[in-house]
Design brief:
The chain is built from 4 helices and no strands. The protein has one domain: Ferritin, core subunit, four-helix bundle (Ferritin, Up-down Bundle). By secondary structure, it is mainly alpha-helical. The structure holds fe (ii) ion (2 copies).
């Protein structure tokens, strides 16, 4: 069955809410992480926030171009206290986001928006890289 414009706008808005929630989560974690062990995680999160802002910018513009209204409600993620818990949550969310972007790229392909398809595939790749970088840091934690 063909993908409708409304279906596409709906899933892109869910993606946008998660991006906004991730920007808030990483900003909060980066501010609260302390100590030597946390230093590299903090640096990584500050860098990744820039990627997530780029994803959110793209999604909001595309939703408007499709005739929708971009959400301003972030998805609310749980707050974690330890470095390990933060990394575990972030890895889980990044992997899920990567899979979702790949699935949504297939929807965009069916809809016939090839710019969106390629951008979502690139974003799937960005999220996978984010997950891999944090997996390396988590494996280095004692
Ligand atoms: Fe993202
Ligand atoms: Fe990410």
């Amino acid at each position: 069955m063909a993908v409708s414009r409304e279906q596409l706008i709906k899933v892109l808005n869910e993606d946008l809410a998660k991006e906004l929630g991730t920007i808030i989560r990483y900003n909060d974690q980066a501010a609260r992480i302390k100590g030597l062990k946390g230093h590299e995680v903090r640096e990584l999160l500050v860098m990744e926030i820039q990627d997530e802002v780029g994803h959110a910018r793209y999604l909001a513009d595309k939703i408007v171009m499709l005739g929708g209204e971009p959400t301003i409600e972030p998805y609310k993620f749980p707050r974690k206290e330890t470095l390990r818990e933060m990394l575990e949550l972030n890895i889980e969310v990044e992997l899920a986001d990567s899979k979702a972007y790949y699935d949504h790229a297939r929807m965009a392909e069916e809809f016939g928006d090839y710019d969106l398809m390629v951008q979502l595939e690139n974003m799937a790749s960005d999220e996978r890289r984010h997950a891999d970088q944090m997996i390396r840091l988590l494996e280095g934690l004692e």
